[in-house]
Amino acid sequence: MAKIKPNNFLDTVDSVFNDAKRQGILHLYAEGDQFTGRHIKVGQKDMFHFGTTGYLGLEQDSRLKKAAVDAINRYGTQFPLSKTYISHPLYKTLEEKVTEMYSNPVIITKNSTLGHIGVIPSAVDDQDAIILDHQVHWSVQSAAKLLKSRSIPIDMIRHNNLEMLEDRIRKLSSKRKKIWYMADGVYSMFGDVSPVMELMGLCNKYPQLHLYFDDVHGMSWIGKNGTGYVLDNLKELPEQVLLFGTLSKTFGASGSLLTCSNRKMYAKIKNFGGPLTFSAQLEPASVAAAIASADIHLTPEIYSLQTDLMERVKYFNTLLSESGLPLVEQNNSPVFYIGTGMPVTGYNFVNRMMKEGYFVNLGLFPAVPVKNTGVRITISRHNQKEEIKGLVEAMQYHYPRALEATYTNDAKVRSAFKLPINETEKTNNKPKIKLNIQFAKSISKIPKNDWDTLLGGNGIFDWEGLHFLESVFSKNKKKEENWKFHYYIVRDLMDKPILATFFTYSLWKDDMLASESVSKKVEEIRQQDPYYLTSYVLGMGSLFTEGSHLYLDTSHPLWHEALHSLLDQLEKLDSKLNSKMVVFRDFIKDEKLHEFFHNLGFIQVSMPDSSRISNFIWKDSPSYISNLSKRSRSHFRKDIEPYEARFKIEIKNTIEPREYDLFFKLLENVRQNNLGLNTFPFPKKIFKYMSDHQNWEFIILKLRSGYSKDAREPVVGVMFCYKNIARAYIPSFIGMDYEYAKVHQVYRQLLYQTIKRAGELGYREILFGMTAAFEKRKLGAVTISQISYIQSKDNYNLELVGILENSG
Question: Does residue 314 surpass a pLDDT of 80?
Answer without folding.
Answer: yes
